[in-house]
């Protein structure tokens, strides 16, 4: 008789059109058959999940929309996201038991992973043993690569630029700021709390930072921090901050539209009123997805790894312990509860 | 005694923050001294103005704002704009009596023009005698060059693109559509009346066109004309059309933000709600001014002149006869009263 093992899972309950709540997910004890073996002939491999990533884009997969760039979650199935996992058994000649991998996996203890379900370069064997494993979900993963692509490919970062980053202590923002500083830029971050602002200034090397919630007039705040105007706005939030930034861009300014976390849960998103500045200031405003630039991933990876090993880059994580805390960790992203990149620690290797 | 000549002028009365009205300008009989001579040592030349250009950007110069890319008009002085003029007398060795020039001039019968008050390449001697003079204000002038720069430099026009143009029968729009057609694109224009739509389809070679005012649902209209989506939106209007276009862009789409005529006179411009599409569709949205690309002007001029002489391009003008009709002609731009490029015929050479 086939051996069944318990497999705790975080199940996606059903589509929503509002901010995610913990009750949109359910912790369930499922089971996994086959004695933790990858089915022969499947070409798949079975992993034990070690840590999982909470990313704002996942909220889009909770909407019943086929129009998005990524298909929605399947109700009744585990949440899907980036994770670092250890191969337990494999029917794929490229992966062997004991290998550590980062790639798309399920929010559960064990997952069966198929190489063919992953984007090119998105499933990677982890060869570095002197970097925290969870960094492959942040600093060295999709969020870090998003910062790199946004600055270099979208914003044409150059020495001396003045740079504004919103959600600056988040998974993407903290690397945006540090990379820009390493390129000789003046960098100011906005964040949602004093604690985050202190972090930006004392640990992450930002020139300055402010709590957007404490600014009654964001336009005035930006004029204070950027008396000469903003060359680059790395926009992780949309909404009021984008509108205020538009008023303060320099001629030839660039805006990377990376996330609109302030607008994610609104069915009628807030209007942006100051786009006429695009003309008078000749601003280039561009949305992007890191997945369109995967050919640059190795370049990014090696450069940022080097900076990290040289002690030139710091990365702050907010680690939730245990799969049972995954729903709360995910929901917390949308109220800014996390300080730094939100990950979930599921198991030790 | 110095000979004084009458010089009828259209005077700018004072700054406004709303749509322009005829009463914001005043026809006045001024005078010009010196016997229609350029003052010796002035380096200037005296011209007789033949035709003047009405352009929407001029509305920005009626606002008391030094923050704009171009200084405001001077109250009590004539309106300033592009014109075609004939040199009467000259203290500038580069210009001789009888020369025809296009460049910045005043809304008056005679103007004293200084080369040094003009942008490079903006003051040009007219050498072509087989093209209507007023075309140097439209097809072969700033509006035509705006179409060229927007399509090639901003939107990276390529064969097979699907192209939406708003204000499509206007000074810029009609050339956008025709250039895109000459590059093998599918082109649809929006305009404000049946007459304009007929013009676009029957004379200007657009694949299709529609009256935006007759569409209760612009999103639905765009889905009808662009079932596969829009690659390029050449935006001359902003507002609702921009919002609807954002919903219908293809992945990798490009939006040239060229004018926001629908928003010019609003102190609190309308909000744009669909910018989240910039991310999911990886859209590049860029404002621009033709004056940043003047090094390309000769390239544009020769190419469009060739197309015109080959009969491949048509240009529709709306000509107001006489300086006294200039205020009404200008004001009409903002309600879309003009059909084609609005010019004012002041005098024959």
From TrEMBL, chains A, B:
Gene3D superfamilies: Medium-chain alcohol dehydrogenases, catalytic domain (3.90.180.10), NAD(P)-binding Rossmann-like Domain (3.40.50.720). It comes from the Eukaryota. Pfam families: ADH_N_2, ADH_zinc_N. Keywords: Oxidoreductase. InterPro entries: ADH-like_C, ADH_N_2, ER, GroES-like_sf, MDR_fam, NAD(P)-bd_dom_sf. One of its GO terms (molecular function) is oxidoreductase activity, acting on the CH-CH group of donors, NAD or NADP as acceptor. The keyword Chaperone does not apply. Residues 33-344 form the Enoyl reductase (ER) domain. The keyword Oxidoreductase applies. CDD domains: double_bond_reductase_like. This is 2-alkenal reductase (NADP(+)-dependent) isoform X3. The gene is LOC115748378.
């Amino acid at each position: 008789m086939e051996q069944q093992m318990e497999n705790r899972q975080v199940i996606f309950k059903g589509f929503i059109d509002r901010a995610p709540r913990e009750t949109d997910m359910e912790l369930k004890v499922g089971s996994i058959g086959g004695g933790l073996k990858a089915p022969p002939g499947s070409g798949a491999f079975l992993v034990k999940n070690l840590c999982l990533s909470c990313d704002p884009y996942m909220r889009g997969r909770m909407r019943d929309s086929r129009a998005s760039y990524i298909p929605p979650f399947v109700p009744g199935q585990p949440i899907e996201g980036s994770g670092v996992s250890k191969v337990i058994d494999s029917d794929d000649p490229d992966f062997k038991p004991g290998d550590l991998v980062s790639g798309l996996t399920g929010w559960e203890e064990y997952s069966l992973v198929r190489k063919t379900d992953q984007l090119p370069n998105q499933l990677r064997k982890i060869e570095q043993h002197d970097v925290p494993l969870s960094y492959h979900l942040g600093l060295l993963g999709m969020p870090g690569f998003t910062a790199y692509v946004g600055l270099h490919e979208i914003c044409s970062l150059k020495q001396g630029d003045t740079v504004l980053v919103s959600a600056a202590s988040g998974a993407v923002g903290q690397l945006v700021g540090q990379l820009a500083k390493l390129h000789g830029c003046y960098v100011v971050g906005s964040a949602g709390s004093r604690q985050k602002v202190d972090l930006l200034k004392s640990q992450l090397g930002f020139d300055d930072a402010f709590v957007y919630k404490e600014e009654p007039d964001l336009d005035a705040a930006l004029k204070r921090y950027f008396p000469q105007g903003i060359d680059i706005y790395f926009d992780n939030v949309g909404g009021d901050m984008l509108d205020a930034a538009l008023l303060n861009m320099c001629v030839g300014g660039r805006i990377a539209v990376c996330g609109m976390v302030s607008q994610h849960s609104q069915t009628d998103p807030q209007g942006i009123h100051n786009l006429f500045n695009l003309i008078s200031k000749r601003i280039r405003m561009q949305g992007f997805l890191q997945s369109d630039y995967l050919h640059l991933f190795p370049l990014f990876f090696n450069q940022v790894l080097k900076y990290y090993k040289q002690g030139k880059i710091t990365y702050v994580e907010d680690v939730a312990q245990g799969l049972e805390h995954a729903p709360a960790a995910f929901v917390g992203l949308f109220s800014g509860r996390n300080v730094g990149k939100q990950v979930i620690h599921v198991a030790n290797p």
